[in-house]
Amino acid sequence: MAWTREDANKLYGVSKWGSGYFNIDEDGCITVEPCKDGARIRIIDVIEEAKKRGLRLPLHIRFQDILQDRVKRINEAFAQAIEEAGYKGQYQGVYPVKVNQMREVVETLMDAGEAYGLGIEAGSKPELLLALSIHKNGNRLLLCNGYKDDEFIRFALMGCKIGKKVVVVAEKLEEIKGLIELSKEMGVKPYIGIRIKLATRSSGKWATSSGEAAKFGLSTVDLLEAMNLLEQAGLKECVTLLHFHVGSQIPDIQVITRCVREGARFYAKLVRMGCPISYIDVGGGLGVDYDGSRSTVASSANYSLREYANTIVYGIMDICDEEKVEHPTIVSESGRALVAHHSMIAVEAFGRIAKLNTIKNLVVPKNAPKVVRDILEVKETVDAGHYDEAFHDLVFYRQQAMSLFDLGYLDLQSRAVVESLSWEILAEISRHYEGKARMSEEMKELVAGLKDQYLLNFSVFRSLPDSWALGQLFPMTPLTRLNEEPTIKGTIADITCDSDGKVDTFIGDGEDQDQREYLWLHDLNDKPYYVGIFLTGAYQDTLGDMHNLFGRMDEAHIVLDSDEEAGWYIDEIIEGDTIREVLEENEYAIAELIRSIKTQVEQAIKKDVVKPNEGMKILADYEAGLKRYTYLQVDSRRRL
Ligand SMILES: *Cc1c(COP(=O)(O)O)cnc(C)c1O
Fold this sequence. Notes:
Elements: H1 5-12, H2 14-17, E1 22-24, E2 30-32, E3 41-42, H3 43-52, E4 59-63, H4 64-85, E5 91-96, H5 103-112, E6 119-122, H6 125-134, E7 141-144, H7 150-161, E8 165-170, H8 173-186, E9 191-195, H9 220-232, E10 239-243, H10 253-272, E11 279-281, H11 305-323, E12 329-332, H12 336-339, E13 343-353, H13 370-383, H14 387-406, H15 412-433, H16 441-448, E14 452-456, H17 460-463, H18 465-470, E15 476-478, E16 488-493, E17 502-503, E18 506-507, E19 515-516, E20 519-521, E21 529-533, H19 540-543, E22 554-560, E23 568-574, H20 579-585, H21 590-606, H22 612-625
Parallel strand pairs: 4-22, 5-6, 5-12, 6-7, 7-8, 8-9, 9-10, 10-11, 11-12, 14-16
Antiparallel strand pairs: 1-2, 2-3, 4-13, 13-14, 13-21, 15-21, 16-17, 16-20, 18-19, 22-23
Bound molecules: pyridoxal-5'-phosphate.
Pyridoxal-5'-phosphate (PLP) binds near residues 248 and 284.
C-alpha cells in the first residue's frame, strides 16, 4: 500500500497535538490554520517567503491569529460553562507575563482580551513595571504574585492611586504587614489578595512545587493571623481576592477538581468570617496536550478546555451553594494554554550520522586477524536464525576486537571491518526483536546505538530549555515530504558542543506507546530538509540560555489577511542576535577584540607570514564576521 498523508498523520499524531491548528495537506506539507476557519498557511511557504526577505534558519515563527483565537476559546469555554451551570458570577482571566514576556505577545493578548476584560499578572518588579504601563483599563485586573519587597508593594499601590485595580496577592505574612504599613503611609486603599497553600498536590513535572511544602502561599495558621492583623488595621474589607496555584501543566483533571473544591471552601469560610472577597483565582495549570495522548503523562492532559471550565465553575458553585455564600468572579491565570500553540521553530537538518554506514561489498581476506573471522562467523549464526546466540557472540568478539585495537594488535582496516560487520549483525538482530518485549537491557542499549543521528541547526539550550531541563516532550515533524514514507529512525543532535544538546525522546502514537526513543525521518537528499518543533510559545521563548553563544533566532510574525493573494503576510521581522551582540552581552568590548586581532595581523605581516593585502582582508573578514548570524549556514548540496 502506498504511503499517504493519513499514514503520516497517524505516525506523527499531528491532528492530536495540533488541536485543529496544525494539519498535513495533500502535498505532504504541514499547514497551520490559525483560526480553525479554513484559512490555511503552509509552513514551507512561510520559510520560503522569510528567506526571500533575508531571514535565516533556524527560524522562529509566530502566528498572531492563534493568540487571538486562544483568548477567545478560553473565554468562551468559561462563558458557556457559566451559562450552562446557571452560575451567578462571571469569569475574568489574567495573563501571567512570565510565560512569554515578548512585547508582541503581550500586546496581542491584551488587545484580543479587551472584549473579555483579560487582565495581566506580574511576578516580579520588572514584570510589574511592564504591566503597569501596558494595563490601561481600570476594570481589568493587575495581579501581583511572587515575593515582594517594600518597593514592589509601593509600585503596586502607585497603580491603585492612578485608578487601576492592582491586587497585591500576599504570598507570606510579612507581605501583609508591609501592605498595612505602606498603604497607610501612601494613603491608598489597597486591593488585597491572599494566596493560600492547598493540601492538594499537583501531579506531573511540577508536582514538587505544590502541597504543604510549597514555597508560596499562607498556611491556615498564617491566614488566620493575617485576618487578625488586617482587622486591627481596619483593612479587612480590602481583602478582594483569594488565590491558589498548585503548579503548571496539571495533566490530571482530578487534581483540578480537588484543588478547586478545597480552594472554594477556603473562600466560603473567609466570606462567612466577614471578608468581602469577590474574586476566586484558581491560578494556572491548564495543561497543553503536547503529545496528543489525552492522558495523565506529564507532557499531556486528560481533559479538554471545556471540561476544565466546567470542573471549575461547577466545583465552585457546589461549595458556594452548600455554604450559602455568593458566587464570586472566577479568575484563572492560564499562561501556557494561551501562548503555547502560537509559536514554532523551523530548523534545518545539515547532516546525518548514519550507523548503518557499512562497507559495501565487504570481502574479508583469508589472512584477516582471527577476531575478524570470528565476527564473520557470527554473521552466519544470525543468518541461520540463532539470534540470541549471535548477540552473545557478537558482544564477546566485539569487545575482544576493541581490546586488541587498544593494545595495538589490530590495524585500522580490520577495525573498520569489525565495526561494519557489527552494525550489520545488530541491525538484523534488532529487526528480529522489533516490538517484542524479550530484549535484554544490554541488547536494548546496543540497539539504541543503531539509531541515526540527525544534525539540526539549532540549540536545545536556547530554544527548547524544558526539553533539556525537564524532559518535556514537544511535537516534532518534518515540514514537507509527509506523503513519502519516512524510512529512518533518528534522534536529534543540536549544534552545541554538549552531549546534552540532543533530543532522544519523542511523542509516541498516543495509543500503545507513550513515547518513542526515535523520530521517523526521511533520507536526506540535495534539497533542504526542514523539521518543525511545535507548541513552543510557553516558557521556551525566554527561558533559553546562551550555551556556546548561540543567540536569538530570526523571527517572523505571520498574520492572516484575506486581501493578500496568499491569504497571509509577514507582519514583522525580528532579526536574531549577531555574533557581535552575543559577545557584547557577555561583556566583551568589540573594539578591543578588533584591536587585538589587528595587532596579531600586523605582527604576522611584519614577520612576513602573510602579505599585507591578505592581512587586511583577514581583518575585514573578521569585522564582517561579527555581524553574522550565530547559527550555521547549511549547504544541502554537500550531502550528494
Ligand atoms: C507560572 C504561573 C502561572 C502560569 O501557569 P500556566 O500553567 O502556565 O498557566 C499562573 N499563576 C502563577 C502564580 C504562576 O506562578
